[in-house]
Amino acid sequence: MKSYDFFLGVDGGGTKTFAVVYSGTGECLGTGRADSADVLNRPRKKVIENLRDAVDRALEAAGITREQLTFSCFGMPVFGDIPEFDPEIKQLVEKIIPERVKVVNDVRLALEGAHPLGAGVILLAGTGAMLMAKNRQGEVFKIDGWGEHAGDMGSGYYIGKRALQTVFKMYDGRISKRTPLFEMIKEYARVSDLREILLYCKGDNSRTYIASLSKVVCEASKAGDEVATAILDEALRELLITLNTVKQKIREIPIPVAVAGGIFNCEYIYKRFRDYVDKTEDFYIKTSTLPPHVGAIILAAKEVYSEERLFEFLRNIKASE
């Protein structure tokens, strides 16, 4: 394998941008970090600046120029979700890397990292929630991920919002008994009057803040709060609906499933999710083999390498990780 091939992968997430440069021998040569590249929540000028900063740092660390890149892949938030934004996002990327570049949704990178050479599913449940899958023909499918107002079922935001609705019912008497969840939410928010928490539920950071309450729900459930447990059960049902819907898209059973996101750090949800998967013949759990930024590198390499060469490239990456 020729060592003078160089690939750039960029994970332009909603909270940070991470760029990497790999050689054709599968060696990571340089990395670069910058702020978010989310076009829905950052000014366009700032998105370009963050992308350029991350890429420049990775290239500088690798000791190469843009002109030496064999191919690049950028994973960008909302790309492919809202068609009218796609041309604009692609133009933003091409201001950084004008040619030999592929743009995909940022979750596509996680999917490729989890299942680089075959069919599979990645189920993400963090602040938001969605599933992305690909079949053996390389066709990609997305289920949910439509944002907190239209979807993200079973996400941290979903759990946090249900928790808020529940404790406010306890506050005004629609639920007659106040369970430990009520005081735990107040303690987390550091408020003496529950109504004060409403100040944190508006504005730019409200989505993240509401989603963070999911951790309180998990702790309350662990402490025996039945109301909190019921909220988690509801979220789990939604995640399983999303998971089972993919059987309409992928016919090769059993389907390997990788999971990611903070909600699966909740012991109650992960244990029951895993129990469900273990009992069904339709799915099996697969640990994500490579991180999303390496998924970007693999997608870039797929544009120029044969299947045999790609297999060797991937083997070298795994050996170096």
Automatic annotation (TrEMBL):
Span of domain ATPase BadF/BadG/BcrA/BcrD type: 8-297
Xref: Pfam families: BcrAD_BadFG
Gene3D superfamilies named among the record's database cross-references: 3.30.420.40
SUPFAM superfamilies: Actin-like ATPase domain
Name under which the protein is recorded: ATPase BadF/BadG/BcrA/BcrD type
Organism per entry: Kosmotoga olearia (strain ATCC BAA-1733 / DSM 21960 / TBF 19.5.1)
